[in-house]
Amino acid sequence: MGGLVIAPKARILHGHEWVYGTEVRAVFGNPQPGDVVALKDQRDRFLGSAIYNPRSQIVARRFSRRKQLLDADFFRRRIRQALELRERRLPGEELMRLVWSESDGLPGLIVDRYRDVLVMQTLTLAMHLHEGEIVGVLCELLHPACIMARNDAAVLEAEGMERETHIAFGSMPGPFEVTGRGLKFVADLCHGQKTGLYLDQLDNYGAVASFADGRRVLDCFCNQGGFALACAKAGATDVTATDISGTAVQAVQRNAELNKVQLHTVEANAFDLLKVESEKVRGGAESKWDFIILDPPSFTRNRKALGGALRGYKEIHLRAMQMLPVGGLLSTFCCSHHVSRELFLQVIAEAAVDAHCTLRMVAEHGQRPDHPVLLNMPETSYLRGFSFELVQGR
Ligand code: SAH
User: Does 238 share its domain with 386?
Assistant: First the structure.
């Protein structure tokens, strides 16, 4: 087996699982892209087995601290462990992420379950090359009707791979109905964003909706409408869901019918909508909403873009606070691991200063347990959320 000699001070010597190109001292044994390599320190001590891709910035991702090959036995063991974790934490759920990359010891492999359809992503070259074994193990353990290999994420290009989607097993049903935490959704896996639904948010719909009884709710960045639907079911008197994507807004209408609730939908850029509506309230108009939910996409994919992203986050919070009456509620989420919990709170606090209001935290939210966090890999902790009550007005 070929391998890499790792430079002193590399992050993998401090518990992380990744090796960047700049952290490699030497390459031995001529490993090929996608191979398993041995990692060693300068004194020839073995650090573990990793998958190798010299085309990526992250040239090696450790998946075991022992000598380990990627074969069907290995995939069976790791996938079984991932399934056991979900059975313990989310028993009987038909909608969930079954395998989440490094957090399940399978770097670059993501498997989502939508009832009996699995959506698989292989985002690293090694996982991509082992698709056949992975599909075999998934069929053996889960007996799915269909496995869709959906490899259309932008990160594939960073790994030097092409984006493509194909059916790896069975045949794809048309749009079908799925239920998660009592909410019904139409799963349209060929056309939805990401891998269909935002599974990491499923448990937060109910948590946020527990504040919605009797409220007039605005769900900004609603996508398939999870927050809006949950609020409507929980007794909100009026719910508006808005997204920039026309297909998302149409999906919310279909989902509202399925759940037998009434919603207003608006196709709009949230920045424009929040600006217009906050200016009306500042001009003396009545607040239309007393509960605003903000769940924007990650405004930053990298650290360089952080400044602009923070300005964006601040702006939507400021506008939302300006639109709310005293006693109003704000639930807000940030899904970028570049924005720490503290930084996110700081941005919200700065917006509150500019809006001349005081916020009382009523709940903190995070990613669902099917997206487990590794302490040694901060990148695995990316979803932060808070619910606040606006306690003093202007
Ligand atoms: N709350 C959703 C997930 C939101 S994902 C859920 O739980 O399912 C972010 C959404 O923001 C996407 O649906 C995307 O279409 C939308 N979006 C991105 N930029 C936007 C903008 N400027 N204005 C409004 N929506 C936007």
Answer: yes
